[in-house]
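Supplementary Note 3. Input sequence used for the single-chain structure prediction.
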Amino acid sequence: MGKSYRQYCPIAHALDVVGERWSLLIVRELSHGPLRYTDLLDRLHGCGTNVLAARLRGLEQHGVVARRRLPPPAASTVYELTEVGRGLEPVLHALCSWGLRTLGAPGADDELVPGWLERALGALAARLDPGLRLTVRCGNEVASIAGGAAVAGELDDPHAVVAGEPAALYELIVNGDLGGVEIDGSVEAAAQLARVFAEPESAPPATATAR
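The predicted structure, written as discrete structure tokens, is reproduced below.
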């Protein structure tokens, strides 16, 4: 691991553990399930093999990540989050929500890695009505919100289906602009996405509107 802040402070300690470059992105990838070293390398574009190995080693030493050998026929080693590591998931969601405010809509040259939509919706789901059932189709991605969490794929009976390009979805969520997306079903249910940033985080979630 890198240099320590050497402060008796929980924030400083947390940064000692996961504050180095790539560490939280490794946690981000593993939050969706175990991955092989080569899988992580493929997903973390720009992270060198020596850096990835060092970060994984440090995260293992702090009990954030563990290695596990899969049984045959896979017979490969995967990395996965420990219970301690999973404790960072609310932190990732908070960072995602915070970063969305100033990230800006994706441009034509911006690469969106597979699974980005489910992750984005996962950061918002906890701030929405847990009864909301919403499917979002965006570019090549399809993900849904149900039971206060994000899931991959479509729902059988959502309150609404929202479809649009990534830039239009960004404008809906961050700026409340419904004009760039298509809504099949309850507009009120879909509009909950537009209220995530319009209302204080402490405000109670709105009630889902069925069709």
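DSSP finds ten helices and seven strands in the chain. Confidence is low (pLDDT under 50) at residues 202-206.
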